[in-house]
Amino acid sequence: MTFVFHRFGRPAAGAAAALLLAVAAVALGLGSPAKAATSPCSDAVASAPTGPATVSSASSSFGKVLVVGPGAYAGCSLYMLTSDQLHSLTGADYACSDNSNALNLACDTILWPALLTDGAPIAGPGVNPTLLGTVTRTDVLTGQSVQQVTYAGQPLYRFVFDDEPGDTQGADLFDPVTSPTGTWYLVDPSRGRVAPGQAQLQLETAPVCAAVYWPPVLTDGRPLAGPGVNQNAVGIMVRPDGTHQVTYNGRPLYLFSGDAYIAGLPYGGARIDGAGAATPWGSFDTIPPVS
Q: What does pTM read for this prediction?
């Protein structure tokens, strides 16, 4: 038996598998698994904006999060991608771009529509104006230079399966389509950090093998122990960026980017790949439950 991580209040399916199911549906022309994507939140970016974007905050099951302010997409949830941080650190290309990928769907206009602005973005209620900014993108609309809204330096996006204002289907999803791969999070308006929600640990039996990328399991508040998991062994540690990482018996927990894939896409079948993987920081392994 090994741990499987679930976000409190979200469907039981693993986050990575949920995203892969979603993007597979787009690739096959099936639309949203829940309902037709007819609301503005799911609209693709097709043209440059004609005015400044407004960013506001709203309450959600993940706490206060950033949303689009008044206008066509009012109330639509906004997300940041962890692997976009490489751009600010190294000048590398944005991880969510129009570069070719296995689904042949542009990440920054269809799957995760970039929040664009014409002029300085406006801070709505609950938003820290000093954290708002822009970055120039030439890869969103071919042949055009546009400004994407940033918060605490991180570009903001909507999600293709957030059909209505207040939907948070894109929260905490590992994305194998971006390059490099990363995890999408809602954004905490007060500090510009990720808003991961409350973590919950459960048990699952699965085959194992080995590989490499390790995003931390983050939580807002005390993580919850599911059936078969010792609540007394579950805790948190504060990371250097101020986020809270889940621990078990005092040891930090991580996800692995190769663990939740589905058949039919060029990533292989569902499995646990990270167990036993050796890295420069030590070997990673799954955790047996405490009796």
A: 0.64
